[in-house]
Amino acid sequence: MSSGPDELELDPFSWAFHENPFPVYARLRAEAPAYHNPRLGFWALSRHADVAPAFRDWELYSSAKGIALEHEGEASASASFLAMDPPRHDQLRGLVSRAFTPRRVADLEPRIRELARSYLRPLAERGGGDFIEDFAGRLPMDVVSELLGVPVEQRADLRTWSDTVLHRPEGVVGIPPEARVASGQMVVCFIDIVKERRRRPGLDLISALLATEVEGERLGDGEILGFLFLMIIAGNETTTKLLANALYWAWRNRAQRKLVEADPTLVARWVEETMRYDNSTQIMYRTLTRDHEIHGQRMREGEKVALLIGSANRDERVFPDADRYDILRDTRESLAFGVGIHFCLGASLARLEGRVALEEVLLHLPHWSINENNLERVHSPNVRGFSKMPLHLDHPIRAGRLVSPAE
Ligand code: HEM
Fold it and tell me: Going by CA atoms, what residue is nearest to atom 27 of ligand 1?
């Protein structure tokens, strides 16, 4: 399709869009707040005042046909209750929500810190490394795996497969064969894990789910596998991207970086502003359950609608000077974790992991620099962040103490 310089097209599969989606979002908010893409067959809402109510109105904006553009019909197998409407959504979410109460999550802090240190110390001693491979990709996987009961030996493979499930080669619309193969590999691995937990139950969430009944019925294997998929992909990919995005934007904004370095109590705000400014989850989709008119456009029952979180979070009507990265700003209206019945179940955990991980980064990796030429982006229609982030330390650290250049 030819597209002139002024033609406005939102193409969630385009690598150029992944590189910098924000100018497209700004034009959508200004010129086409109810945008239709006939080529790819979806609508998009970009203003905060439209995105937030759409998230809340699950009866009109249904999740039951999937939350990705390409997942029609395959949704519930791999997205569990994220891709369901009430009442089933509420039942399944209710089962696992006990593991995610703020209190239960807060108890995880010492273990998260210990894990973070175990990765950051060697990275610091080597004077640098790849921030994703050596740290940001590993920590969230360990945390979610310990909650679920995923053995250490399977975690590296699961990370590789879950990256492949999300990756889209340039120009590919739809689910590529490699992603399907990786999905299959994850299923085989999850089947093994569930079998093992059935044989030898532990104190983990999988064992608890295997023993749980909903209205007198045990959860089916399919439901447990779907839940594992959801946790590994939703819980792991997003948090990995958050950590690297936080580092990147602090590095690009020297004054902001100095603020957190001078006052580490600001780290929680660094996390929030990173998610507002450049969230790892940019787009969630819904399917309309009836015709609906908005901004003079008639969207039809059964059509897909993209809810552009990344755009709503840059809406200047809600966030003054929205394109400025400012860790001191008020982020309460941020839609980074969604809103309504699907509000991120792992939000407290993600916030805790973000804060602890970045506090430890400040401690163990002072004077980091990013080698911008070798940064690599993830290419996915809804997750945004980096797959490679080479980092070096100007002053290496040994065993937690700064080594002066003269030493
Ligand atoms: C920076 C990190 C994270 C971000 C930005 C994020 C973002 C989101 C968003 C936007 C939603 C709403 C989806 C929708 O409305 O369709 C969501 C749902 C969800 N997230 Fe997260 N998430 C993060 C971390 C986590 C973690 C660590 C976990 C668990 C270990 C998790 C588990 C879930 C689950 C289970 C849901 C589905 C909730 C439901 O459908 O009721 N997320 N997340």
Answer: 235
Number of domains present in the structure of the chain = 1
- List pocket residues of ligand 1, CB cut-off 6 Å: 55, 63, 67, 81-82, 93, 144, 230-231, 234-235, 238-239, 242, 275, 279-281, 284, 336-338, 342, 344-346, 349-350
- Does residue 8 belong to any structural domain of this protein? no
Smallest CA separation from ligand 1 atom 41, residue: 342
pTM for the full predicted model:
0.93
Its domain, for residue 211, covers 24-396
Q: Cis omega before residue 33 (within 30°)?
A: no
254-304 per-position pLDDT tens digit: 999 999 999 999 999 999 999 999 999 999 999 999 999 999 999 999 999
User: Residue 344's Cα: distance from chain center in Å?
Assistant: 10
Ligand 1 centroid – CA 128 distance (Å):
31
Pocket test of ligand 1: the residue of 57, 61, 337 to mutate, having most ligand atoms within 8 Å of its CB, is 337
Q: Which residue has the tokens 């995923």?
A: 150
pLDDT tens digits, one per residue of 123-169: 999 999 999 999 999 999 999 999 998 999 999 999 998 888 888 88
Residue 11 belongs to some domain of the structure? no
Output b/e per residue, 240-253; b: 16+ Cβ within 10 A: bbbbbbbbbbbbeb
Q: What is the pLDDT of residues 343-400, one digit of tens each?
A: 999 999 999 999 999 999 999 998 899 999 999 999 988 789 999 999 999 765 544 4
Q: Is 246 domain-assigned?
A: yes
The structure tokens listed for 395 are 């002053």
In the reported structure, the alpha carbon of residue 281 is separated from the centroid of ligand 1 by a whole-number distance in angstroms of 9
Ligand 1 centroid to Cα of residue 231, in Å, is: 9
In a domain, 304, yes or no: yes
CATH number of the domain enclosing 336: 1.10.630.10
Quick one: tokens of 3? Answer: 């597209």
Which of 26-35, 57-66, 77-86 is predicted least confidently? 77-86
Q: Which amino acid is at 331?
A: T
Residue 376, CA distances (Å) to 5, 167, 386 in order: 26, 13, 6
Q: State how beta strands 304-308 and 42-45 pair.
A: parallel
Give 58 or 214, the one with higher predicted confidence.
58
Which is the closest atom of ligand 1 to the Cα of 343? 12
